[in-house]
Amino acid sequence: MQRQLKKINETTHTVSQRAPSTTLIRLKHKLPELPYDHRALEPIICAEIMELHHTKHHATYVNNLNVAEEKLHEAVAKGDVNAQIALQPAIKFNGGGHLNHSIFWQNLSPNGGKPDAGLLQQIEKDFSSMDEMKKRLSEATIAVQGSGWGWLGYNPKDKRLQIATCANQDPLQATTGLIPLFGIDVWEHAYYLQYKNVRPDYVKAIFDIANWNDINCRFKNACGC
């Protein structure tokens, strides 16, 4: 009996030594490439703004998000709940900045097409007309105090389009439950070099480079139609 137990223990020890270890590999976030040249959106948004906005501001959000997530990974491994809680604002701010800008670049195009029949029908149902939707989105976005975003989003619960604003880099879906379709960045770094303090001119002009092909796809994915 003792020989059998000894043999079982030796076998178990050998198996445990040979068992492959599983290591969780954390993939780092990367700055997405623009789908167009920095000059492509001129004269609405100049190349200097696009280059600074993408390669400096967005890149900073990505880098800081990676740093915060690495610290969070270490805090979880140590069971340090206080550190995990303390890191949440940095993850929200930089993660939101990364999410928002990744959508923003795709939302813009020098040749963005127009709303397709399905989206236009939904816009007319929820806002009475395309012009009325633009008016309401513009008014809400211009009225953002300080820095933030104006959004056209889809409410999956009520199955309708809604306009919302988010402060700072708060991400739309995590903050409101709305699925983002079209976002307007009104942080000053998005327009100040060109439009100075005249935010309304920037908001009005950005509709001229709205990528409706991208917005159409986001709407179809959001509503499942």
TrEMBL record:
Source organism, top-level taxon: Eukaryota
Keyword terms of this UniProt record: Manganese, Metal-binding, Mitochondrion, Oxidoreductase
Polar residues bias locations: 11-20
GO cellular component, one term: respiratory chain complex
Major localization class: mitochondrion
Residues involved in Mn(2+) binding: 53, 101, 185, 189
InterPro entries: Fe/Mn_Superoxide_Dismutase (IPR050265), Mn/Fe_SOD (IPR001189), Mn/Fe_SOD_BS (IPR019833), Mn/Fe_SOD_C (IPR019832), Mn/Fe_SOD_N (IPR019831), Mn/Fe_SOD_N_sf (IPR036324), SOD_C_sf (IPR036314)
Domain Manganese/iron superoxide dismutase C-terminal: 117-216
Enzyme Commission identifier(s): 1.15.1.1
Pfam families recorded: Sod_Fe_C, Sod_Fe_N
Record domain Manganese/iron superoxide dismutase N-terminal: where: 28-109
Cofactors required: Mn(2+)
SUPFAM superfamilies with a match to the protein in the record: Fe,Mn superoxide dismutase (SOD), C-terminal domain, Fe,Mn superoxide dismutase (SOD), N-terminal domain
Compartment(s): Mitochondrion
The reaction(s) this protein catalyses: 2 superoxide + 2 H(+) = H2O2 + O2
Region (Disordered): 1-20
One GO molecular-function entry: superoxide dismutase activity
UniProt family annotation: Belongs to the iron/manganese superoxide dismutase family.
Biological role: Destroys radicals which are normally produced within the cells and which are toxic to biological systems. Destroys superoxide anion radicals which are normally produced within the cells and which are toxic to biological systems.
SUBUNIT field: Homotetramer.
This protein's name: Superoxide dismutase
Species assigned in the record: Trichogramma brassicae
